[in-house]
Amino acid sequence: MAKHRLRYVPKGVPTEFDLRVMELERKGAHVPTRELIKTPEQIEGIRRAGVVNTGVLDTVEQEIHAGMSTLEIDKICREYCADHGATPACLGYGGFPMSVCTSINEVVCHGIPKSKDILREGDIINVDFTTILDGYYADASRMFIIGETTPAKERLVRVTKECLEIGLKAARPWCDVNDIGRAIEPYAHEHGYGVVRDLTGHGVGCQFHEDPEVCHFAQRRRGMILVPGMVFTIEPMINMGTWKVFIDADDPFGWEVITGDLKPSAQWEHTFVMTEDGPEVLTH
Ligand code: MF3
Ligand code: CO
Ligand code: CO
Fold this sequence. Notes:
Blueprint: H1 16-26, H2 40-63, H3 70-83, E1 87-88, E2 101-104, E3 107-109, E4 124-133, E5 136-145, H4 151-170, H5 178-190, E6 194-195, E7 201-203, E8 210-214, E9 231-234, E10 237-239, E11 245-247, E12 257-259, E13 265-267, E14 270-275, E15 278-281
Antiparallel strand pairs: 1-4, 2-4, 3-12, 4-5, 6-10, 7-8, 9-14, 10-13, 11-12, 14-15
The structure holds 2-amino-4-trifluoromethylsulfanyl-butyric acid (MF3) and cobalt (II) ion (CO) (2 copies).
2-amino-4-trifluoromethylsulfanyl-butyric acid binds near residues 110 and 235.
């Protein structure tokens, strides 16, 4: 007999919920595996990791200022995390050398904290931190404006936050994950911005990066169904100019992503759990 090729395999006698997923799969929808649907206990664990992660970013928010180095931001994050019995997911991940990503101006994401990178008045910086607590992951990032910046950079930061909120509104239970990018992209384009395509949001919770990929641009093809119980990020990277990005040749670690035209980029990120009523943010 042929091995069955269905992704969704219920555990024991199928529940109403299982039957709904199985029916969608039978009709050709791309459904998650059962492992991607978190148990209430797992969701509680991710929620607790989210509380620590929010504490990390709140502490950065209180302490960030012109004249400090991004290495000092790394220290703040590392210490807060350790004081709360948690560990930074970034440290050692794929060879990433630090505990947090600090991405200034034209750095799109994965900026590496350094003693020589001193924050200056007018800089915009994304601080992206992921906490592991009791084996559960929560991932979020915020933008900070150092002192006063130009109206153009201020607008980029605000509109990017709105892109996250728009993506969040588009994420409905049982919808197509690609509906998120279909909502975000036109809004970013209205402002003349580029939407990064090479990096995406992702499932999260039991590992750092799980399925599905969450595109912030408009995919034509259908993606995975967002079934209640799934935990994932939305984290649009929005560029003032071109959507194209590349790895900074000067980064010996090969991590830092910069814009193709060296114009500024912004990003905001939250971790959510999808519920029957819509997404619930676990990182604020
Ligand atoms: N936190 C990033 C994300 O949102 C991933 C950083 S990976 C690292 O998915 F290795 F650069 F830390
Ligand atoms: Co993420
Ligand atoms: Co992140």
